[in-house]
Write a structure and sequence with these properties.
Elements: H1 8-13, H2 23-59, H3 63-76, H4 100-105, H5 168-176
Length: 198
């Protein structure tokens, strides 16, 4: 008798997978899900049909009519705020690619907010800080900081490179190259020495 009830505790933790228990209730829930799916499919089909009709209608318009239609459509659409200029060393945040249909329709205002708004750490002017403390992201003195913060800080042009040198050797090499053979010759092809003209 001791071994009869020893697995009762583990049976209680199991997920109820008995489909026969509430068959009528499960059928009603399935009907609701199926009706929602049918409604969603119909809405998507109608939206696609409207889009195709709009494309066809705009193809038949003249340029002036299309411009007027653009202005009318822009006035009715939900717009994001105008993007402001970035502060010095402000970090860029991408607003993402998911749920942008909600941003287009305007049903979710969260997706229409300005992602270029500076965070609390970026509100002050970093150009007043010492050069070593001017960091785009992270905090001063923390691990993972790099020497270069932005491209305007240093001119990366390598003037010692071979293509930057203006010597007779490089000029001779450039003139030997097939595409640049007559790169410095600006005479007309017919006026070259030895040609007879017409």
């Amino acid at each position: 008798q001791a071994g009869v009830h020893e697995n009762d505790g583990s049976d209680i933790e199991l997920i109820d997978d008995d489909d026969e228990k509430n068959e009528a209730e499960e059928y009603e829930l399935w009907k609701i899900r199926e009706l929602k799916r049918i409604k969603r499919d119909k809405e998507e089909r109608l939206e696609r049909q409207k889009e195709l009709e709009l494309v066809e209608r705009r193809r038949m318009m003249t340029d002036q009519e299309r411009e007027e239609d653009d202005k009318r459509m822009d006035a009715g659409s939900a717009k994001r705020d105008e993007v402001k200029a970035f502060n010095f060393l402000q970090k860029y945040y991408h607003r993402g690619g998911f749920f942008q249909d909600k941003a287009r329709t305007g049903e979710e205002p969260l997706y229409n907010r300005d992602y270029h708004e500076p965070t609390a750490e970026e509100t002050f002017d970093k150009s007043t800080l010492p050069k070593a403390m001017q960091l785009r992201r992270g905090q001063f003195g923390k691990k993972g900081q790099v020497k270069h913060t932005h491209l305007t800080e240093a001119d990366t042009t390598d003037m010692s490179a071979a293509w930057s040198q203006h010597s007779k050797v490089t000029q001779k090499y450039q003139e030997k190259m097939a595409a640049a053979k007559s790169v410095h010759v600006f005479d007309r092809p017919g006026s070259a020495s030895g040609s007879t003209g017409h």
